[in-house]
Write a structure and sequence with these properties.
With about 300 residues, this protein is an alpha/beta fold. It is about 35% helix and about 15% strand. It has helices at about 10-20, 35-40, 55-60, 80-85, 100-115, 115-125, 150-160, 190-195, 215-220, 235-245, 285-300, and strands at about 1-5, 25, 45-50, 65-70, 90, 145, 165-170, 185, 195-200, 225-230, 250-255, 270-275. The strands form two sheets. The chain has a seven-stranded parallel β-sheet with strand order 8-7-6-9-10-11-12. A five-stranded parallel β-sheet has the order 2-1-3-4-5, sandwiched between helices. Helix 4 links the parallel strand 4 and strand 5 (about 90). The termini are close together.
Length: about 300
């Protein structure tokens, strides 16, 4: 079975599949659709990551392709309709990095509400401004709103409860008995209007693309905080940055962007916390993903 590893993946996966005599492995990470289309010709198993654009064109360039294996929960980078037409299976790992993402979200909350980026800048510049500490609050002061109570959103809710936060969520696809650690809110607008902090945890789809724009951000209470750690296309980034600049948002944390990496300049603002799509990237998560992705590929074998 010819395997093309066309992305940077965990070394555990690479070593295990390379050592398996059932596979002939080519490891050639690429970044662009053109590069991917140019090298997929003979592969039967294609191993990708979320940044890999597995388009209809790429699939057409791989006449022997039988499995696309990706160590992520989301597969919005893959043209699933084109894969189905060819009978190509798609293997993914939903929830394997949920804890890593959830922990970083909590880190964002503390960083923004305690103005850590600003204080870091002050201390580096030789300032020692402590007089405004009474304006800072502990997390138990805030109402947390979660859009999407799946594996990541559910984990965020559990961790937030440990900080005694008031947690509520909007997710029309989760049954009432699965609403654990969060109270159910009937509509997105109701969630927005009653959340001091909003965090987004939905997959990218036609329904969620552009889900949070200028209208939705305006519904948040003035002085609220916003976290975007799902997919960049879910949030109108320009609207969010405008709301931050105008003071409607007190803080904005983004791990995902549209496009990635961002091409427009981002403001140098201590209320803005940015990471390069690394919320799910930890030693523990990557190692677990490597092991389980190998197991999924082996389980798929005829």
């Amino acid at each position: 079975m010819r395997v093309l590893i066309a992305a940077d993946v965990d070394r555990t996966f690479v070593s295990r599949i390379t050592a398996d005599a059932r596979f002939t492995v080519t490891h050639r990470p690429v970044k662009t659709e053109d590069e991917l289309a140019s090298i997929v010709g003979d592969c039967e198993v294609l191993v990708t990551r979320a940044y890999s654009k597995v388009t209809r064109r790429v699939i057409a360039a791989a006449p022997h392709l039988r499995l696309i294996a990706q160590g992520t929960s989301g597969t919005d980078n893959i043209d699933e309709a084109a894969a189905r037409e060819r009978g190509i299976a798609i293997a993914s790992l939903p929830g394997e990095n949920a804890n890593a993402v959830a922990e970083l979200v909590i880190g964002y909350l503390i960083s923004m509400t305690r103005t850590i980026p600003r204080y870091t800048r002050d201390v580096v510049q030789g300032l020692w401004e402590r007089d405004d500490c009474a304006t800072r609050h502990e997390l138990r002061h805030y109402r947390l709103g979660i859009i999407g109570l799946g594996q990541v959103g559910g984990r965020v809710a559990r961790l937030a409860r440990a900080f005694s936060m008031e947690v509520q969520a909007y997710d029309p696809y989760i049954a009432d008995d699965a609403f654990v650690n969060a109270s159910r809110v009937a509509s997105l607008d109701d969630l927005l209007a009653t959340s001091d902090i909003l965090t987004i945890h939905v997959p990218l789809s036609d329904e969620t693309r552009g889900m949070i724009g200028a209208r939705e951000i305006a519904l948040l209470p003035r002085g609220s905080y916003l976290v975007s750690a799902a997919r960049g296309e879910v949030l109108d980034q320009t609207a969010a940055l405008t709301a931050l600049r105008e003071g409607h948002l007190a803080g904005l944390a983004m791990d995902v962007f549209d496009p990635e990496p961002p091409v427009d300049g981002l403001p140098d603002d201590p209320r803005l916390v940015l990471t390069p799509h690394t919320a799910g990237c930890t030693y523990e998560a990557k190692a677990a993903i490597g092991e389980k992705l190998y197991d999924k590929v082996v389980a798929w074998l005829p």
